[in-house]
Amino acid sequence: MSKKPNQNHRTELAERSRAERARLEVTFDRPHLLGALFGQYDQNLVAIENRLGVYIAARGNKLQIEGDAEAAARARDVMTGLYNRIVAGQEIDAGAVEAVIAMSAEPTLDGIIRHDVAEPPKVMIRTRKKTIVPRSATQVTYMEALTRNDIIFALGPAGTGKTYLAVAQAVSQLITGSVDRLILSRPAVEAGERLGFLPGDMKEKVDPYLRPIYDALYDTLPAEQVERRIASGEIEIAPLAFMRGRTLSNAFIVLDEAQNTTIAQMKMFLTRFGEGSRMVICGDPRQVDLPQPGISGLADAVTRLEGVEGISVVPFGISDVVRHPVVGRIVQAYEGPDA
User: Distance between the two ends of the chain, CA-based, in angstroms?
Assistant: First the structure.
């Protein structure tokens, strides 16, 4: 015969359950900004509700947030952070909402909620077409390194913003005149395929390999400026093989897909570094497409150079994927939770 639970014990459990739930209120002093904050058809509120498992109700210039105490606190900080970004003149889209939600989950010594979630980012990149702000804690570290160090290695999975932010910083420095030219490169290695003969001149043959770099350029500069600067030589986009024998001075140099370099190629590239330059090497050590088995030049260089003065290594993880939430889940499915 089963024993009935003590009435006092049931009351205690009910009170504990109620205590674990919270109802928080947030007041905004600029009601005219709430349309941008909530999003079209309240899509930003819906995204936060779905991701954090809370209920959000708007009452004039106030929001009521109800749910698990920890989730409600995160939702409050996310809403405050998004609002402060709008006040600071930053645009809010679905990616920004997802990024702030992700940042709110990163623990610190002060507790589960990061202080910088509620504040607009203090580091940003200004280009002709947009102002770019970090969308993960690692991006903050990376963007700071892009302005401080001579050579930066950015390591991690697709969708973390490694190449995009490097090209954006390069464009920003070209616009301000702190460098004279941009040199954007990647090894012409096929990703597990054999494309065979490619028609056209040398530029037409290598352009398919360099398309992601072009995409980042056109997203940060007007199209006519991209074409004009490429024609004048201010922006040079070339395969890695074209770097041999050169000294790259007063330039911002970006090497993408660096995991597909050999050790000899990486040494050649790094020794091109000249006076007044900055160099960024981006790649994912887990996605090597080299036709011959062997050690990737990227992995070898990081092992040799980590800790050398003037060189920084910024590792990205799954939690830093900002391309789309599903990309992070795909990476985790393929590479595991510790990728």
Answer: 51
Cα separation, 59 vs 224, whole angstroms: 47
- Which H helix or E strand runs over 22? strand 21-27
- Give the pLDDT score at 18: 52
> What is the spatial distance between Cα 8 and Cα 14, in angstroms, rounded to a whole number?
10
Residue with tokens 């007041």: 27
- Helical pair 43-52 and 94-103, crossing angle rounded to 10 deg: 30
Residue in 134, 129, 125 with CA at minimum distance from that of residue 81: 134
Locate tokens 């795909």: which residue? 330
Angstrom distances, CA of residue 227 to CA of 41, 123, 222, 232 = 39, 29, 9, 9
**Residue 250: what pLDDT?**
95
Query: Which stretches of the chain drop beneath a pLDDT of 70?
Result: 1-20, 106-116, 118, 189-207, 209, 293, 323-329, 331-332, 335-339
